Amino acid sequence: MIFRKGLIQLVILMLVVVIFIAGGGGEAGAAAAARPVSVSGGYAHGLAAWSDGSVTGWGYNKYGQAGDGTNIDQFIPKRIAGLTDIVQVAAGNNASFALNAAGEVWGWGQTYGSYISNDPALPYQKRGGPAELEGLNNVSFLTTDGSAGIAVNKDGTATLWYPSYDENDNMRMKVRYLPLPGITGIRSAVIAGNNALFLTDDGSVKQLSIYNSIMGRIRWASDPVTVNTLAASGIKQIASSGDNAFLLRADGQTLRWNKTLKAPSELAGLSSVYKLQTGYNKLYVLKTNGTLWQWNYNSGPLNKPFRVKGAESITDLWGSTGSFGFALDKKGSLLGWGEGFYGGLATGSGTVTNDDITTPIPVQAPLTFMVNGKSVDFYGTAGVIDGKLYVPYSSVFKALGVKVNMTQSNPDPKFNNYRFRVWSFAYGGTVIHIKASDPEQLFINGKKTESTITLKALSDTTQFPLQDLCELLGISLKWNTVSGEVWLGDSGE
């Protein structure tokens, strides 16, 4: 009887375990958060492809390279509409590209994006979204210098693409495609100045000029083909910036090549390397012990590689054509460091726009706004400044039922009779006035208060502290800083 009772208990325990595993067992069964699988930076913008196939873009956006359909700089990453199942992104200068699992390629931004005139909401700031590069199919890898690009095909061959303009209409651009002969078994490629370098399956590196210096133009199909071997074997990765290329040998040693050096040469102090990437005149290195290193190689003969402080347990690394890089730590956090011009590091804050961030910091999570249970989207950028949410006036206020207005103050004798902007927010029985003086002055229902409220400016737009305003107006707000979800109104209860 004891044995039978024990057997029954064991069976019940096993059933419980099976049900727990199948059902997920609470948090253990919750859907895993998407992780970055590919990240790339241009001159001052960034792209990230995620494990769920989505893509986010942020930063400098004059040409629509952030992919949000505007030319408004975005200090917070936004999800790019129309892109699904993406496995790699490639940014260069002010252009952006994405590759999906089917081998199709999409491009947007400078030269590759369209201008949309007379849009009702954005008559001068509307931009087209990603457009398919129809001459590229069955692609496995992309690289670009921001103008031209090389697609490595799934059969191990490569195709050069570049923009070309109609002789009779220099505003009409078309993409030209040129298969590159003489090299097979290609795994990846980079563009180094006027040269293309190819890493093959056998670990060799081949070099082919993609520019006809005699004719002063990019390579044509009729041009003679000369393929040089830079390394016969033993190379596991290549990267480039400008005219310089860097080769990572299988033993962890880093090599440098350019037309002046003729042959790749070993770099002192850059051994035990797991992965390398580049920025503008910068080499970023991830060592096998999980530390990050940087070499500003054109900063003088005495400049040496240095360890990036605060970067521990790093598992992946990505670069840019700007002066910043990105890394992934073992917790799955996407980090950025360097010179984050125009929000290229996606810190969310204009206060660090032009700072050189020497210690990697988290890339801000995309923000999603729910007002009374309904999703609200807006064109302008949001911000996270000093730990607070900031939004432009044309964002969530209309959906909340808040009436926003801007007038001019009376002449202020303390400031040579200058007239300041006065913003008003009316909701329920409360009217808030913010006089944009220095410091700002706050009025509630016509009475001046001693409370402080600070306005900011991002993308040439006044930004308002959303949490402060909601508290003053009696509007519920909840913000999940990890997921980026913001609930306002009834949805925040």
Automatic annotation (TrEMBL):
What InterPro entries does the record tag this protein with?
RCC1/BLIP-II (IPR009091), Reg_chr_condens (IPR000408), Ub_ligase/GEF_domain (IPR051210)
Which branch of life, at top level? Bacteria
Q: Which SUPFAM superfamilies match?
A: RCC1/BLIP-II (SSF50985)
Record carries keyword Lipid metabolism: no
Q: Does the keyword Metal-binding apply?
A: no
UniProt keywords (A-Z) are:
Repeat
Q: Could you identify this protein by its name?
A: Uncharacterized protein
Species of provenance = Paenibacillus auburnensis
